[in-house]
Amino acid sequence: MRLLDRYIARQFVLNVVVLFVILFCFVVTVDVSINLRKFAKAATEISGGETTGVRHAVVTTLVIIDLWWPRLIQLFNYLLGLVMMGAMGFTCVQLLRNREFLAMVSAGQSLQRVLRPFIIAGIGLSVVQLVNQELIVPRIAPLLPRQHRDAGQPTLDVSKVPLIRDGNGRLLYASAFDPAEGTLTDVFILETNDEGRAVAVVRAPEAAWVDEAWELVDPVAETRSLTPTGFPVAPERFETNINPTLLRMNQYKGYREALSFRQIGTLLERPELLDEAAEAEYERLRWGRFSVVLTNLLALVIAAPFFITRVPTGVLSRTILGAPVLVTALMGGVLGASAAIPGLPPLVGVFIPPLILLPLAIAAYGAVKT
What we know:
The protein is of the alpha+beta class.
């Protein structure tokens, strides 16, 4: 049966690739049709003011590719579960149309046996997803939050850091943050008392992130209280959990999802600088990706009775019936892995969706008529 396994797995993976190509083309085409002027404007700035001609068209195309290729790599992780469901449906329809399921039953093979190549191929795709999440996406993370106006630029724009409180209760402000260099400009660090009033402040024209702390350039300390507290002398190093990664996460939506397991672990190694809510959120983000992988694989099993049948009858009705069930399972897995569950630690809470789907998957496996 190894030949049959390879045949089914090959058809399944081929359908996954085709569906991804179709979805990627659709997403990029819609975005380009809506934001073509923004892409053309970015291309004009890059080409030195040229607004027409073949060169401008080529630069515009390159700008579109530059903005979207990192987004598509990340989008692969988000859509894999849904695409695997669709690919499984298309593969089973092809097998039904050619009466190959019926031939398997006639040869004395159980239709439950058909699930094995789907699960093996799904595990392989899930490994690719995890490798992409852990090794590729973190390296291209600075490119992901870029907007259309940033297309063609290799890094994010310099932006202001609004007043932000760290795990020790100190406030940090900077007039400019350079994500590429990991530096701050015009830095203000405020020490506050229990009433929230500033009792001391440190000013520095520049700061750079070195060895898990901000190294301040020419810092100056001022006391704003009758009782000297806070900074007795201007510190040259400011240890805090507000690192460049955290600033990118706070300022650019979606950057948080680009962190690897190791990067999140580095943030969690200093619990004294994290409040309870932030620590729980990082834990859910850290382990939630594995919960989503398990959910995707269990959803493949749950889909079996809807797609694997002996004769090609009622395929449309089965698909219509199965679509809400499978989409609910996938979305429930994603939401359950990211939402806090009261009374449960994050490491346990993120795996609640797979635990709920496990008995459903066992029941679905037994429901395959053969």
